[in-house]
Amino acid sequence: MLSRAQQAIDGGEDVIVVGCPGGRGYACSLNIHGLAPICHVCKRQRSRGVDNLKGRFTYVESPAAYPGRDTGSLLNVEIKDRWAIKSLTYRSVDVGQAAYSSYVGLSRDLDLEGILARSTLMKLLHTAQLLSAYWFDLLKEKEVTRVVLYNGRQNHNRPLLRVARLLGVEAEVMEFSGPDARCVYQFHNCPPLDLNNLAMLIDENWETVEGDREEIARQYFEFKRQGAAVNERSFVLGQTKGLLPEGWDPEKRNIVIFNSSEDEFAAAGGEYDETLYPSQTEAVSRICDALDQEPDLRIYLRMHPNLSQVKWRFARQLREMGSLHSNVVVVPPESSISTYSMLAECDVVVSFGSTVGIEAAYWGKPSILVRRCVYERTGSVYVPRSHEELIALLKDRSLSPLPSFGAKKVAVFWYKGGRAIEHLGGSRATGFTFMGQHIRKHAVEKVLYIAFKSLEKWFLGALINYYCGIWLKAFRRQ
After folding, report:
1. Distances in whole angstroms, Cα of residue 86 to Cα of each of 94, 131, 157, 339, 403
2. What does the alpha-carbon distance between residue 66 and residue 182 come to, in Å, rounded to a whole number?
3. Helical segments of 95-116, H only
4. How many angstroms from the chain centroid is the CA of residue 217?
5. β-strands 253-258, 348-351: how paired?
6. CA distance 267 to 437
7. How far apart are CA 255 and CA 342, in angstroms?
8. Structure confidence at residue 71 (pLDDT)
9. DSSP of 279-339, one letter per residue?
10. What is the DSSP letter of 234?
């Protein structure tokens, strides 16, 4: 974002850089409880970044309070479930979805089971409303013609995207995905996960990318299969190559269900909520029920490694599937069993939008997609429109792989669809730089930040939000 701001300044544009004042009442996706020390370190870090900007620009902060504006109209609503919070709007801005996205992204509490869920969501919702009101006034007062923001999903940036579109202001949404500084993506007037826009960009990138497209796609899929990290981490590095579940029988029809981190897709909202099943848990349960009496068939549920620390109900229910069905084997997220060995040896793959679904298509496996995702329109995966159609596909012993052309297009976009922008350098391995400078926390700030992020995760997140909620429910049952 600093690099993009510097580009605009260098281009002679009238630039306003807006920061958050933090403080009591503010909560965002990186600080969902509004802890003051986290806020303090974040502001110090931001100040160092802004101080490195060169040239003429205006720096302002959104208000700590907003006198004369009704930003509390939604603060007394009853939150029965995630759908109740996701449906809340303020002046046509989907502040409820924004607040839910920030909460679930850090807490992983998909169904709002936590004892702190409501109070935390209220802080996030208040911040989203406060910022929405502010953006309406600022964009009108300053006669803003374009806004630039990052990602556009959470409670601190989604309101800007929505308000800009409501006022007819051009919105440029920045995103970053990849190992080095050449992996910047820019989206116009929509969030990065917008399916229509992604389909268009994937096609455009295929036509304009430099180099051998077939070779780029091969490199990407080989890169993934070898366990290399495209972003922050690889989820298969701790797995043992060649290791299959005990009792794997190649004579049976082996179906592998690769689930994804459902909380991540739930946080996206909108078209991602238009799914065949209300949840992955129900989808897996109904698939297993429908195939329970097929003696020559074995179902393996490979839980996503990103769920290894998740204890909420949806993850517990997935772990229990094996005890409920005689022909179902659950491979838990922390297992060293190899994802890619299962992919290589199975007969058919079922996925919920994780990359393994499109990887399966590339490697010549029949791949069935059971939710909305970026590769649904590639023609490389089966996309059933009903439960009955899905079960028919799974029972079809002659089911063939679909053409891999679409899978290659997606791979080339993920691998080469980003670009370098001026002033941004470095990599995940060495650290990123702005104008050649690493902008890092000071030693004391780093200790303070780590300490309070640990408190956020383990004390407020695990001990209070999760375990106290479990204990309270058990006490009430008694």
Report:
1. 8, 17, 16, 33, 37
2. 40
3. 95-107
4. 23
5. parallel
6. 34
7. 9
8. 56
9. -HHHHHHHHHHHTTT-TTEEEEEE--GGGTT--SHHHHHHHTHHHH-TTEEEE-TT--S-H
10. -
Task: Quote the crossing angle between the two packed helices 387-395 and 280-290, to the nearest 10°.
Answer: 50
Alpha carbons 160 and 13: distance in angstroms, whole number: 20
CA distance 355 to 221: 10
Indicate the SS3 state at residue 427.
Answer: strand
Domain ranges of the chain: 2-203+418-477, 231-415
Instruction: Over range 375-404, report the average pLDDT.
Output: 96
Angle formed by the axes of helices 405-416 and 213-225, nearest 10° = 80
Distance from C-alpha of 462 to C-alpha of 478, rounded to nearest angstrom: 23
Q: Which residues contact 105 (CB under 8 A, 6 or more apart)?
A: 29, 154, 263, 264, 267
Interstrand relation of 16-19 and 58-61 (parallel, antiparallel or unpaired): parallel
- Is it true that domain 231-415 has CATH number 3.40.50.2000? yes
* Pair 105, 29: CB distance under 8 Å: yes
Q: What is the pLDDT of residues 66-90, one digit of tens each?
A: 555 555 566 667 788 899 999 999 9
> What is the distance between the alpha carbons of residues 166 and 137, in angstroms, rounded to a whole number?
13
In contact, 121 and 84? CB cutoff 8 Å: no
Using a 10 angstrom Cβ sphere, with 0-12 exposed, 13-18 middle and 19 or more buried, the burial of residue 292 is middle
Q: What is the pLDDT of residue 267?
A: 76
Query: Where are the alpha helices (H) located in 325-440, listed in sequence order?
Result: 339-345, 355-362, 387-395, 405-416
Note the pTM of the prediction, 2 decimals: 0.92
The candidate with the shortest Cα–Cα distance to 384, out of 342, 350, 348, is 350
- The answer to whether residues 164 and 178 touch, using CB atoms and an 8 Å cutoff, is no
Rounded (10°) angle between helices 117-141 and 158-166: 40
Question: Which helix (H) or strand (E) segment is 367 a member of?
Answer: strand 367-369
Give tens-digit pLDDT for 419-438: 999 999 999 889 999 999 99
